[in-house]
Every structure is written in structure tokens, then in C-alpha cells.
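Morning run. Coffee first, then this:
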Amino acid sequence: MRYYKRLPLEKMSNCRDLGGYPTKYEKITNYGVFLRSEAPVELTEYDIQFLKDYKVRKSLDFRGDSDTSLFPSSLRNIEGIEYIHLPMFGRADAIGFEDNGKDPAENFTGWGKSYIQWIEIYKGWVKDVMGHLAGTQDVCHFNCNAGKDRTGITSALALSIAGVELSDIAFDYCISRTMLKPRFPELAKQWGDYLKDEKGRLIVNHPFLYTPKSAIEQLFKYIYKEYKNTENFLYSCGVSEMDVIKIRQKLIG
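And here it is:
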């Protein structure tokens, strides 16, 4: 089986394997366990077959109801892949704010603060996600819209369980903007109007499109201060110790 860091797909540029990171346990995270990506929309037959051959057996979709209706996942109703709609919020947008016709960036105080709010408000969601990561046979894929925020949090927590250093967790988070940039024009149609200019083009320097290192550092600084470590935070969400162990074993066992 050949594994990839970034999967060579035709319609996704930010589909990446969480394998290949060094850990404090003197092991490297395994390939072929977890895949993170942007929304798998309008995938080609080649892409779908590639993911099936990569042994993807479950796909978790973190988007809201509106997004999954307007832009359905191409992995839904695919034989051999269990598709699960698991929204963090009930809204389509990637920030959890209500759509009042205004640009939410007007009141945006940074991704780090937003992530901290999310992990505290949506602890039940964290529990459900970790349960699926722990229980999936073969490869578990997960996505949100851009594959950087809800997906980034999920990836960061999983890598932290496996003992990956914060610098590598931050790298895995930060690289999303670079991976997504070639697809910005195409992805503009899937994202909110507040990310577009008067001509309908994506505003590439919009703050919602960035993945700054400081955001993930702020998130883990909060977790370490309030919970001492990632495992304790997960236990506060109701994640079982067995599920934490299973995720760690899947990544470095």
C-alpha cells in the first residue's frame, strides 16, 4: 500500500494524511489511519476510487445542514464508505455565527479565541468525534468546509493524544491555507457571500481564510492551563479513557 502526506486528488487540494509526525513516544504517527480535508464536493470518479483504494471506510462531515444540502458530500451513498453528518453547529458557515447579512469579521477577535469558545461550548460534539475516530476500522476521513478550523481542531486533538509536539501540530494546522490557495476561486461558490467582493470573487486576504500559528498555540495554552493536558480536556467532554487509548494506538501502535 502506498501512502501520501497530501493525497494526489483532482478535486481536493487539502486532503492530507496525519501520518509521518514524530512523537514523544519515539515513534512516528502511522499513515493510513486518519485523513483530513476540505469538503469533498463534486469529486471525480478517480478521486472516489482513490479514496476507496486508500481504505477510507468512514467519512465524518462537520458542516452545517445548509452546506450539506447545497453542496453534498461526494462520499455520501458510496458503497463501502459510511457517511456520517456530524455538524459542530447547526449553521452552514464555518464560524458558528448567525447570518444577519453583515460580515462576521467585523466582530471577529481571532481564531484562537474562537477555537477556545468552540471546544467549551461543543463538548458533546468533541465526544462524538473522538468516539468515531477511536472506533473506525481502516481509515477515517473527516472534513468541514475549508478543512482548516473544525477539521483543524480535530486533527490537533488527535495528534496531541499521540504525543506529537505542538510545533508539528501547528505546522499541520498552518499548511492548510497554502494547500487551499490554488482552489480559492472554485471554493468561493461554497463559502459565504461575506468572503466575496462585489464581483463575487473570493477575498483572498479575508481573516477567515488564514491559519496562523498563534491560533493553535493559543488553543493549547488554554487547554494546558485549564486541564493540564489534552487527555484531561477530552475526559471533561465525556470521552472515555479507552477511546483515548484507542486513538493513540491507532496512530502510534
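The chain has ten helices and five strands. Good start to the day.
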